């Protein structure tokens, strides 16, 4: 009985223990079906987990460009991404973020187009179903949407760098590079993507190309916080070969420096900057820039934007590791100074394009370029038209209308040509090496649309000092001679030749001055309308003024001590044109209206044989020495100045009255303190325009000359000051100079504050 009880207890215990083990085993099996949470989402993606369910790892594969696949109900035909579960052979990191897992849930409607819900390092695995849908639709649409959230662009970009640098798909490098360049064009406004995409292209150019690649010059050459690797490799090869850097190399270096900040003129006129840099660099470094190689050697490790891998890229050449130019700093400050100076030369040209973008390629723009860049001006369409007009001749006479048409200047409907257009004509012809008359810049009357001009070849346009005493005197003589020659309204060849001879014999004139005066005389003799106008003005003078004119004209002719028959004839015609008795010419000469040191010759001398009068001996004087009579020279200046002053209004028509000079000068004396940075003269000129917010060009020019300023230079100086103060020009316009309303208010506030 006892044995039965013992056996029963044992059986009970065994039965109970076995049941417990079965429950434990069942519990264990149940536990294996419960979800396992993995904190690293990217690791979960690599291990093939989806919502806690473990699946057999499915290798991801690369979808080639142009291959069609279907993910959910999205048909994607552009390819160039990974699809599947796990990227084979992946190390720790997030490089698997780019894989499109078709087993993950995708919403039926896209959402979050800006990618706001994506993490800093986005992955397809941890994106929401709605975000996955947006991404797939973007892929299916050809990845052309420029407004898509940058997180989706990075998600796709991770796959491109994985394919090229990790999978080493060298054969696909051209299309991968082209795709990154396309994406950079669409999304380069994002600084982060621009940085990573540029590094990708740098690395790809080095790794996938067998031949050395020289980066293109660009105002956006720098990227990130270090010199781009392509620049470092190119310059490193040159330094290793001990080859001096040329102009392009030096500019590439300074442009690629992380702390180089280009001014507006450099970015807006980059092509011109590159051309001008070559000239200035050659002047400073005729043999190139020699750079000693540093000890630091160049190494390049590509760090994937996804953070999942790194790739070492060999940047050595046949001679071994390359020197790293990033370790050199010695010539950088000099190159920066050269870049700054070159940029400053282009500032006027840049400002014109900033105000008038459509001025690009026009003559106005070309005239503002440094002379080295304007050497091809004669090869422009305008230059060819002018040269065709000359027809190989050195001097020609054409109508104002013909010249304006050749220069592409519109004067239709104009009677008197405005100052601005006259200055344009002069500026254009200066660059073509052609002078012209009448040129208002040298004292001539305004051009008329129905008038004539004489063009003559002269370097730089035959520029002269229009205020030089000798030139002023000779010009006055030409005025008198032209009036006298036209008094009988018949001008023959001998009269023209006489005036030309007189010009050639005037002392103190250079070749260019004589050429300009001969051209000026020719225009006066051809333009009968100006003669009639001048003669009519002479006839209306009162008796005292007429006497002053003839007295001064006689003094000018007699300044050399005698009057030739031709000069006497000129005086006769001048008297006749003014309605004065011609016989008074001789009485004026005989009376000696101008006191001379020697007898006045009024007829040709008749020499008779006799005994020569010996010279008075003097220790201080030899027969070969030349004595200068300073008193006579001074009298000559005063007399010819009188002629110039009296005749200044004869060939100049009345123009609109301008503000009295005393007002302008007074304004200048009080304006300097109001506009800090401007001198008194320019400040006063600015205040003239500021008074009404506008001023006609003629009034502005008059005010500028009153203050002893060149009008165009004054505008440039004031606008330079405006750029410093407001980052834009102040004075704008051609015929009427104006100030923008918003700047006008700021200037007024500055005036009140002062």
How is this structure best summarized?
With 754 residues, the protein is mainly alpha-helical. The radius of gyration is 44 Å and the shape is elongated. Helices cover 50% and strands 6% of the residues.
Protein described:
By secondary structure, the chain is mainly alpha-helical. The chain is built from 29 helices and 14 strands. A three-stranded antiparallel β-sheet has the order 9-11-10. It is elongated, with a radius of gyration of 44 Å.
State the major sheet.
3 strands, antiparallel
The class by helix and strand makeup works out as: mainly alpha
- Taking pLDDT < 50 over at least 5 consecutive residues as the criterion, the unreliable ranges are 24-54, 91-95, 592-605, 610-614, 616-628, 652-665
* Euclidean distance between termini CA atoms: 127 Å
Report the total helices. Answer: 29
Shape: elongated
Averaging pLDDT over every residue, what do you get? 75
Query: Helical percent range?
Result: 40-55%
Q: In what range is the share of β-strand residues?
A: 5-15%
Q: For the largest beta sheet, what order do the strands appear in spatially?
A: 9-11-10
> Can you count the beta strands?
14
Over the alpha carbons, how many angstroms does the gyration radius reach? 44 Å
